[in-house]
Amino acid sequence: MKFRPCNGGCTDKGTHCDGCGRSHEEVAEFNHLVKGLAAQALEQGYENIEDYANSVAKSIYYKLENPS
């Protein structure tokens, strides 16, 4: 399955979003994870949020390339 990011055409009717085509459950889980990562950065008081976001992205990519 190919990931399709949000394109701003979000809907909440039916089982899948009309904008991205992902299931509403998948979108909700994704949003929950992102909110948790953002909350961690806020809790830590990081000033360099772009570095934090890039580090998270690199870590996710690494884990996907090197599952353990």
Question: Which terms would index this structure?
Answer:
68 residues, mainly alpha, 2 helices
Structure report:
- The chain contains 2 helices and no strands.
- By secondary structure, it is mostly helical.
- It has a domain at 13-42.
- The longest helix is centred in the middle third of the chain and has 21 residues, at 24-44.
- The model has no long low-confidence stretch (mean pLDDT 95).
Report strand %: under 5%
What is the share of helical residues? 55-70%
General form? globular
Quickly count the helices. Answer: 2
Whole-Å distance between the termini? 21 Å
List the secondary-structure elements in sequence, H or E: HH
Nearest-integer average pLDDT: 95
Low-confidence stretches: none
| Structural class label | mainly alpha
The strand count comes to 0
Biggest β-sheet strands, sense, barrel: none
Rounded to the nearest angstrom, the radius of gyration is 14 Å
